């Protein structure tokens, strides 16, 4: 046997090992990112599942504002007055807090009340404004309501304790479809 024909020993070279470690670290970072995103989505879904009333109320409110042409507002200060939407396909639309209920009223073209429904009960905070910093007409809404948890709480000893009402607050920003002269949002 010649010295020039050395038999290669089994195993990996240093370069092969570094490349495989690099690929493994890239795969692990992608997996970690996907796991983090799935945890955030799960937490968001759990929050919506625990508070379905306000989730549905906010979705209806967003849809109504997006379907409207504009919001009637005097200035950009926070208002506790009714939120009036013009140019909605169903007619003149108004959201208003009456007592502790948030009510959605639709007026007919002749000025009469076409329909009225309670959107959310036990409302503690209802205010809105036109965002003064936005280029388009952007409506900011703050909504808070009291809710008694459906799931019973347990003490350290394992006994069920009384459900304690909690207050949830939400803040959303939505633009009407024709804000700023555009046909779409």
Model description:
With 185 residues, the protein is an alpha+beta fold. The protein folds into two domains: 15-50; 52-181, no CATH class. It is built from two helices and ten strands; from the N terminus they run ααββββββββββ. It has helices at 14-50, 52-67; strands at 70-72, 83-86, 92-98, 101-107, 113-120, 123-130, 139-147, 153-154, 160-161, 166-174. The strands form three sheets. The chain has a five-stranded antiparallel β-sheet, covered by helices on one side. The termini are far apart.
Low-confidence stretches: 181-185
Instruction: Find the count of extended strands (DSSP E, 2+ residues).
Output: 10
Query: How far apart are the first and last residues' alpha carbons, in Å?
Result: 80 Å
Q: What is the average of the pLDDT values?
A: 80
- Secondary structure tally, helices: 2
Major sheet strand order: 1-2-3-4-5
State the helical fraction: 25-40%
Radius of gyration: 28 Å
Major sheet size, sense and barrel closure: 5 strands, antiparallel
What's the order of the H and E elements?
A: HHEEEEEEEEEE
Structural class computed from helices and strand pairing: alpha+beta
Bin the strand percentage.
25-35%
> Overall 3D geometry?
elongated
Number of domains: 2
């Amino acid at each position: 046997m010649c010295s020039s024909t050395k038999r290669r020993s089994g195993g990996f070279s240093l370069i092969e090992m570094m490349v495989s470690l690099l690929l493994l670290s890239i795969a692990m970072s992608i997996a970690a990112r996907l796991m983090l995103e799935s945890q955030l989505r799960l937490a968001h879904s759990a929050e919506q599942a625990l508070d379905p009333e306000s989730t549905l109320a906010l979705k209806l409110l967003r849809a109504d504002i997006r379907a409207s042409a504009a919001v009637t507002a005097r200035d950009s200060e926070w208002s506790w007055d009714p939120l009036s939407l013009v140019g909605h396909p169903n007619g003149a639309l108004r959201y208003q807090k009456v007592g502790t209920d948030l009510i959605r009223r639709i007026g007919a073209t002749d000025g009469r009340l076409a329909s009225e429904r309670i959107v959310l009960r036990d409302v503690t905070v209802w205010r809105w404004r036109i965002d003064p910093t936005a280029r388009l007409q952007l409506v900011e809404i703050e909504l808070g309501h009291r809710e008694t948890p459906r799931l019973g709480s347990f003490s350290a000893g394992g006994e069920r304790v009384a459900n304690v009402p909690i207050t949830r607050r939400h803040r959303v920003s939505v633009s009407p479809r024709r804000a700023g002269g555009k046909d779409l949002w």
